[in-house]
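Example S7 (structure tokens).
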């Protein structure tokens, strides 16, 4: 097992242990280990995994779940979603 896979599985176990029930995933090559670990957790019935291709849409979807449930909802994305950089000088 690779270090990335082991770390992803450990992270998922920790989040489940903290009471996370829903996770929103915007899959990409950079987050493959986490994507697979969350998918495996869903297959075992440990979490509800929601897949959204658009990262901004994923963030708003997670926000809606969090507001409705009152629980933390992790968003897994492959870029710096939500961060805007001003390139003017």
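Recovered sequence:
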């Amino acid at each position: 097992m690779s270090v990335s896979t082991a770390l992803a599985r450990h992270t998922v176990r920790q989040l489940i242990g903290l009471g996370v029930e829903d996770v929103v995933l915007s899959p990409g090559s950079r987050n493959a280990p986490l994507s697979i670990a969350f998918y495996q957790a869903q297959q075992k019935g440990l979490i509800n995994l929601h897949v959204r291709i658009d990262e901004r849409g994923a963030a708003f979807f997670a926000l809606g779940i969090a507001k409705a449930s009152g629980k933390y909802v992790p968003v897994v994305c492959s870029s710096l979603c939500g961060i805007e950089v001003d390139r003017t000088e």
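Notes on this example. The first strand starts at residue 22 and ends at 25.
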